[in-house]
Amino acid sequence: MSDGASAHHHVVDGIDLRALPKVSLHDHLDGGLRPQTIIELAEPLGLELPASDADSLAAWFAEKSDSGSLVEYLKTFDLTTAVMQTAEGLTRVSREFVEDLAADGVVWGEIRWAPEQHLARGLSLDEAVEAVQRGLDEGVDAAAEVGHGIRVGQLISAMRHLDRGTEIAELALRHRDRGAVGFDIAGPEAGFPAGRFAEAFDLLARECFPATVHAGEADGLESIRGALVDGHALRLGHGVRIAEDITIESQDDEASYVSLGRLAQWVKDRGIALETSPSSNLQTGAIAAWGDDLTAHPFDLLYQLGFRVTVNTDNRLMSATSLTRELALLVDAFGYDLDDLLTFQINAAEAAFLPLEDRAELVELLERGFGAA
Question: Per the database record, which ranges form the Adenosine deaminase domain (predicted)?
Fold first, then answer.
């Protein structure tokens, strides 16, 4: 996906942000397809598309996703998942996903998706995971051939409104040494707390397998509490509504005085990473309580208070975005410099579902890359 029109915004301190190394923790496989690929995969399946050329299709996704409603936003995924029901479709989409990440400067990417949504044409759960892993491996190899070093892992998601949590947790564990690096629950957050999947999360905790949980996006503080308590979550998917537990006591020209509730204090003190996605949080109404443009996003408040904030794309197709663009938008909104952007990458690296030594190497790689800039 090209965002060439806004490319001039991608230069900070004279540096092209795309060239800098980045870490992506929250990126949905079914939210990052190339429009042209959807067209090509849809044809043999006889699927009706709302547009017949890639540019028009991209515009359709962008329009549907920018309504301010999570329900409307989620409808666009019916189309992407429809072309991801065969091994060939899953492998191709996964390969291109990694190539697109690598071209955007991503050096470690965690790619989340829900295998249970890809069984309509006869694949088993394990076959689906294997098809995605083949594509991810091909993408890493293809990126290496053009000089982009990237590593990736799968985050296996269970759909929170369905009842396959334990089955999907067991699936993730079967593939833990073959590409799966973590577990997630996704889908409608309000009304479907992490506690519904307590058995699955307990199993993963016993097996020492990490989980991140979508929370504090379409629901508030109790959802975050449930993610931490029932989900044993090591990170929060979005998590922006933790700001509901922060009170701005007073504000003058010099400073503002804030107090943190117990939950916010806990998330901050434990260094629990917030996987924020600025454009997506705006589009889905996750930050509606604070305002309707990016300068209202609690991201800067959370950053200034010392929370472990990370920057993510969520769904690159739906939000017509890239990690480079998300960083550029934050620079425009809050005046960040390269040191700030490096901090966000290090926050993400330190929260990555990788062994400690690998995380330390990743931080070094980031510091070298930003230092060379």
Answer: 21-366
Q: Is residue 5 part of a domain?
A: no
Q: Please give the angle made by the CA atoms of 201, 347 and 34, to the nearest 5 degrees.
A: 75
Helix (H, G, I), strand (E, B) or coil at 176: coil
Residue-by-residue DSSP string for 60-103: HHHHHHTSS-HHHHHHHHHHHHHT-SSHHHHHHHHHHHHHHHHH
Q: Catalytic one among 217, 275, 326, 350?
A: 217
200 contacts 231 by C-beta, under 8 angstroms: no
Counting Cβ atoms within 10 Å, is residue 337 exposed (0-12), middle (13-18) or buried (19+)?
A: exposed
| ∠ CA 227-232-237, rounded to 5° | 45
Residue 217 designated active-site: yes
Amino acid letter, 356: L
What number of helices (H) and strands (E) belong to the chain?
A: 14, 12
Domain count, the chain: 1
Which CATH number do you get for residue 47? 3.20.20.140
Domain of 321, in residue numbers: 12-372
Tell me, yes or no, whether 251 lies in a domain.
Answer: yes
Residue 54 lies in a domain: yes
Model pTM score: 0.95
84 vs 91: CA distance, rounded Å: 9
pLDDT tens for the chain, 373 residues: list them: 344 444 446 888 888 999 999 999 999 999 999 999 999 999 999 999 999 999 999 999 998 888 766 677 778 999 999 999 999 999 999 999 999 999 999 999 999 999 999 999 999 999 999 999 999 999 999 999 999 999 999 999 999 999 999 999 999 999 999 999 999 999 999 999 999 999 999 999 999 999 999 999 999 999 999 999 999 999 999 999 999 999 988 777 777 789 999 999 999 999 999 999 999 999 888 999 999 899 999 999 999 999 999 999 999 999 999 999 999 999 999 999 999 999 999 999 999 999 999 999 999 999 999 998 7
β-pairing, 15-16 with 11-12? antiparallel
In a domain, 231, yes or no: yes
Contact 99, 141 (CB under 8 A): no
Decide: helix, strand or coil at residue 277. coil
